[in-house]
Structures are given as structure tokens and as C-alpha cells.
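step 3/5: co-fold with 4'-phosphopantetheine
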Amino acid sequence: MTQKAIYPGTYDPFTNGHLDVLERALNIFSEVVVVIAENSQKKTLFSFEERFTMISKVVQDYSSVSVEVLHDGLLADYARQQGARAIVRGVRQVKDFEYEFQMSLLNRHLYPEVTTVFLMPNVKYTYVASSIIREVAMLGGDVSKFVHPYVLDMLHRKLDESKHKK
Ligand code: PNS
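step 4/5: write C-alpha cells
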């Protein structure tokens, strides 16, 4: 039986921490769909299209991974339509848990058959968050240890774009 999971997030940008969690999910599920979704609390640096291109490139060698964009609507409805019974979320620190707990129970309320699975990344990624990567990169810092070279290139291009706008 195919065990399909969805792995949603804002992914602005996709980091090596995200990739680490994805690889752990692939040890459990036969198919994982990375779903780029909107978090109403966040304004993104990269467009949906850019994030789709970026993640597709990073996961191109993983045959059991696909990438989708959820432009609007509920993740729970999307999971139901996809026949996914599991939602994968990475947790790095205790502070992540309150929000994750709330989201997971709400998703279960909306789609009772879905189970959220929390996975911890390698300890070396516990302090890696997209927001901090974005900030450091946009201020010219070296984030090459934390993102795929293609993502790094996209961050550098954004930095150039923003310099030209000034
Ligand atoms: O990477 P993030 O920002 O922590 O991911 C949060 C995300 C995008 C998974 C969450 O905001 C989400 O599920 N958005 C889709 C809309 C939705 O279903 N919202 C209600 C969640 S209970």
C-alpha cells in the first residue's frame, strides 16, 4: 500500500534543515509531496513560482518526492483531496511545539483521518530557520552551509535585485 505524506511549509527559502526532515520522512513514507503553502502571518521574499523552481531543483534526484503549490485554501482539504493520511512537520526546539500542536489538532479537526508526524532534524540544523537565513543572506553573510547551492544562487540574485532597486 502506498503511504503518501505531505510535507507543507512556507519554504522561504528551502533549507538543508528542510531537506534533512524530508529525507527522514522518506524513510517512513513511500511518497512525499512537498507542499508550498501560504502562512497568513508571513510575507515572503520568494514568489510561489520561485520557491517551486528552487525546491524542484533541490529534490530532482529523489524519485519519490514531488513538489506542489497550494495557492489558497486549507491544507486539510488539500490533504484529503490527495488521499494523504500524514502531514510531516519538522520541529527543532520546544518553542516550535505550541504552534505545531495547535495546527496539528486543528488539521485533525478538519480532516479526522489525518495524522501529523513530527520529525526532528539533525542537531546541526536546530538553529536553522528560513527567516534567519534570509536575513543573514540579504545582509551579505555566508549561508552556504545551510542551503543547497541553487538556493544560495537564488538568494544572491535577490540580493542583487534589491541593491538595484535602491
Ligand atoms: O513553514 P511554515 O510557515 O511554518 O508553514 C505553515 C503552513 C504553511 C504549513 C501553514 O500556515 C498552513 O498550513 N497554511 C495553509 C492554510 C491552512 O490550512 N491554514 C490553517 C492551518 S491549521
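step 5/5: annotate
The mean pLDDT is 95.
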